[in-house]
Amino acid sequence: MNRNNIEKLITLYLVNSSELSSKQLEELSGWISASRENAVYFAKAAYLHRNIHDCLCSSAIAKGLEDTAGLSCDTNCFSIPAEKSELDKIARSEEKQPPLPKKKQISRQTNLKEPELHKTERRFSKGLLAFAVSGVAAVLFLVIYANFIPVQAGKLIQTHDVHFSDDTKIGENNEIYADRYVRIFEGIAEFEFISGARAVVEGPAEVRLTGKNKAFLSYGKFFAHVPERANGFTLETQNCDVVDIGTEFGVETGIDGQTTVQMLKGEAKLSSSRTQQTISGNAARGLDKKGEISNIEPNTSKFARKINIGSLGVWRGQNISIADLVCGGEGFGSGKGYTLLPLKDDWKHMMEAGNVSKVQRMPYQVFKEVPDNKYVDCIFSSNGENDSIQITSEGLETKALRLSQGDSFWGIAAGKKGSEIPVQFNKRLFTVESEEAVVFTANLGFTIDLRRIRNTVRPLELDRFKSGFDINPGGKALESKLDVFVLIDGEPSFSKMEVVPEDKQFELDITIPEDARYLTLALCDGGNSNGGDNGVFINPEIELKFE
Predict the structure, then answer these.
(1) Neighbours of 478 (CB within 10 A)
(2) Which residue among 25, 47, 413, 486 is buried most deeply as judged by most CB within 10 Å?
(3) What is the C-alpha separation between 270 and 250, in angstroms, rounded?
(4) What are the angstrom distances between the C-alpha of 90 and each of 79, 85, 95, 98?
(5) Using CA atoms, how far apart are residues 296 and 274, in angstroms rounded to an integer?
(6) Residues with Cβ < 8 Å from 149, sequence gap 6 or more?
(7) Do residues 405 and 437 lie in contact, with contact meaning Cβ atoms separated by under 8 Å?
(8) Contact criterion met (CB below 8 Å) for 147 and 166
(9) In whole angstroms, what is the distance from residue 231 CA to residue 215 CA?
C-alpha cells in the first residue's frame, strides 16, 4: 500500500474518523494488522496526536492562542470562529430580552440616511503571536523528544555463545535503550550501564535496563559489578529489590518467582513486600514468590562474572590452581590428575615404572628449565656452596634461601584429591588428602611465570597467593625441620624458619604486585642437612580479581 495513502488515512482517522468511508476504515485496519511494525507505527502516531492535543489544549496555552490569534480548542482541532456566527448569537440573545417601554413621540419629518457598513478587522499583536507560536513549538519538541527519542541506558560489551530473541533490539553501536527487553535464549552477554556498573546476564534470561543505574530481571542469572561511582545500583525482580552498597552480587530468579541472592563482595540492601535486610561478605539469601527471605548455603561460583577469558571462556570466580599448573593445565582443572617434574629426566621413567626406591638423591645444586610446561619456568635445588642461587630461566638469582649441604629427592610433584603421587615417603607413595597439593622435599624449589598467566586471563588481574602448609616427616631416624620461602622476583615475601612436625598447619596469604614477573616456592632443610623431609602446599592458588 502507498505510504502517502496510509499517512492520509491515519491523519483522517485521528482528526475526524467520521470522515472515513467503510472501505477506507477496512483498508486502514488491514494495514495495521498486517505486521507488528505497522501496529507500532500506528500506535506511535496516535500517541503523538494525543500528546499534541493535550498539550495545546492545556489551559495556559489555549488561552494564549485564543487571546493572540483567535484560535479556540475543541475536541478535534483549532478553529477560527466566524464573525457571522458571533452576530447570530447576539441576535438570538436580543430576541429573548423584554420589550422596552414606548415613549410618546413628537412628530417631525426627518431625513433618514442609511448607515454605511464598515468591515471590522481584528488586530493581532505580532509579538504575542510569535511568542505563542514559539512556545507551542518548544512544547511540541519536548513531547516528541521525550516519547520517541530513545534514552540510552547502557551498551552491549561482549557476548559468549549467545542467542538473542528476534525481537531484542540493539543499536548500531551496541546501544541498549531504556525499558527495551533483552531476551537471551542461551549463552551469556555482558553489559555496561551509563553509570559505570557492569552486568553479566546468563541465559535463558529476560532483562530490561530500566535506567542508567538500574535494571529489571524477569528471569535468569544476573551478576553485577558496581564501582564506587555507581553506588546505589538497583536490580528489581518480581518479588524483591537489591540495592548495591558494595561492589559485587549475583541474582537468579525463575518465572515462578523463586529468587536467590548471592553476595560476593561488599554489601547490599535486600527488600521485599514482607521485609528488608542488609547482606554482606559471601552471604546468600533465598526468596519465595511471596517475598519471604531465608538463609541459604552460599555458592560463589554460580554466576558468570567475566567472559571470553582465554581457554577458560567463562570466569565464575575460580582461582588459579598451582597444582593444576604443575600438572600441565591452565589453572582451572584441565591438567592431569597427578604429575612429577623430576630433577633428572631418567627419574621420571623409573618412577612411572614403579622403581621409586631406586631414585638417587642429589647432593649438589641443580637447575633445570621446564620447556614442556607453559607456566612452570624452572625447578632447582638449593644445596651447594654458592650463596647465590639461580631461580629463573632468564638468570635471576637470589640470596634469600639458606645455604645447605644436605640433599634433595625426586622433584616437584602435584596431584588432586585421592591421587597417589609417584614419590615415596617412608616407603609409601604420597596420597593427596586435601583437594589439591604440591609436594616436594627440602632443598628444592620451583618458579612460576606470572606474565604468562596474565596473558592467559586478561582482563582479570592476579591478586593474591594463598595456600596452607604442613610438614610431612621423611623418617623417624632423623630430626625433621624445614625452612619455607615464598619469593616474588627473587625477594622474600614470606619466610618461616625451622618448621617442625609439632607445629600446626599454617596459612599463607601474600599480595601479588601488579608488575611482579615470577613467583617462587622453595624449601630448605632447616640447617640439619636432612633433605628427606617433605613440605606440602595445601590447595595453593592465585586469587583473581576484576577492576
Answers:
(1) 15
(2) 413
(3) 12
(4) 20, 9, 9, 15
(5) 18
(6) none
(7) no
(8) no
(9) 14
If you compute the radius of gyration of the chain from its CA atoms, what whole number of angstroms results? 41
> In 3-state terms, what secondary structure has residue 180?
coil
Contact in structure between 434 and 417 (CB atoms under 8 Å): yes
> 26: which 3 cell numbers?
477496512
* Residue 263 amino acid letter: M
- Please, what's the b/e burial string for 318-348 (b: 16 or more CB within 10 A of its CB; e: otherwise)? bbbbbbbbbbbbbbbeebeebbbbbbeeebb
Q: Which residues have a Cβ under 8 Å from the Cβ of 493 and sit 6 or more positions away?
A: 486, 487, 510, 511
Task: List the chain pLDDT tens, one digit each, 547 residues.
Answer: 666 788 888 888 877 777 778 888 888 888 788 876 777 777 777 767 766 766 566 555 555 556 555 555 554 444 444 455 555 655 565 566 566 555 555 545 545 555 555 555 555 455 555 555 556 555 555 555 555 567 899 999 999 999 999 999 888 889 999 999 999 999 999 999 999 999 999 999 999 999 999 999 999 999 999 999 999 999 999 889 999 887 899 999 998 889 999 999 999 999 998 889 999 999 999 999 888 999 999 999 999 999 999 888 999 999 999 999 999 999 999 899 888 898 877 766 666 666 655 555 665 678 999 999 999 999 998 866 667 899 999 999 999 998 776 677 788 999 988 787 766 655 567 788 888 999 998 889 999 999 999 999 999 999 999 999 998 765 554 678 899 999 999 999 999 999 988 888 999 999 999 999 999 999 998 877 776 788 999 999 999 998 7
DSSP state of 385: S
Cα(100)–Cα(140) distance, integer angstroms: 53
Determine contact, residues 212/194, Cβ cutoff 8 Å: yes
Helix, coil or strand: residue 407: coil
Q: Is the dihedral of CA 131, 137, 143, 146 positive or negative?
A: negative
Domains of the chain: 152-306 (2.60.120.1440), 318-545 (2.60.120.1060)
Give the Å distances, CA to CA, from 84 to 18, 68, 71, 91, 118.
26, 20, 16, 10, 14
User: Coil, strand, or helix at residue 347?
Assistant: helix
User: Do 408 and 343 form a contact (C-beta atoms < 8 A)?
Assistant: yes
Residue 3 backbone phi and psi in degrees, to 5? -65, -40
- Residues contacting 1, CB < 8 A, separation 6+: 27, 31
Q: Measured on CA atoms in the order 446, 450, 452, 457, is the torsion positive or negative? A: positive
Peptide bond connecting 101 to the previous residue in cis, omega within 30 degrees of 0: no
**Adjacent-strand bridge partners of 299:** none
Q: How far apart, in whole angstroms, are the C-alpha atoms of residue 287 and residue 275?
A: 11
Could you give the 3-state DSSP secondary structure of residue 271? strand
- Residue 52 C-alpha cell reads as 499534541
Q: By the 8 A CB rule, do 187 and 159 touch?
A: yes
- List the grid coordinates of 308: 571470553
- Single-letter amino acid, residue 222: F
**Closest among 392, 425, 444, 413 to 348, alpha carbons compared:** 413
Size (the chain), residues: 547
